[in-house]
Amino acid sequence: MADTQQVDARAERRVAKLAKQIDTFAKSHGGAEAQVAYIGQRGARIVLVGEDGGWGDLVAPSYEIAEKAVAKAGVTAHEAFDGEFAAKVKTGPYEWSRMAGIQVGGPSNG
User: Fold this and answer.
1) Rounded (10°) CA dihedral 47, 15, 71, 60
2) pTM to 2 decimal places
3) Who's near 35: CB < 8 A, 6+ residues apart?
4) Would you say residue 106 has pLDDT above 60?
5) CA atoms of 92 and 95, how far apart (whole Å)
6) pLDDT at residue 81, rounded to an integer
7) Interatomic CA distance for residues 82 and 40, integer angstroms
8) From start to end of 22-108, where are the E strands?
9) Which of 3, 5, 42, 60 is the most buried (most CB within 10 A)?
């Protein structure tokens, strides 16, 4: 039973840390919305889109932890990254040149 409590406590700390990061992002972008996507063994990706069009992402160790973090942060969660939600993202010259470079086999300065 002690092992289960230790795992639960660790997961809750991770949820709290992610929720704090989501909240910080939301505050600096006039609010935010999120979408959680499963990315395999690595866990889940939390895509954040701010009211100002700024965006970012976080990786959680599991889909469950990601969902809990988004809920704890109190931001709207979307089932998919499409439609009006995706249209809120604003990209600049950096993103466009980077995407174009990847498409034509250019360097990926990651």
Assistant:
1) 30
2) 0.79
3) 46, 47, 77, 78, 79, 80, 81, 85
4) no
5) 6
6) 86
7) 21
8) 32-38, 44-50, 55-60, 76-78
9) 60
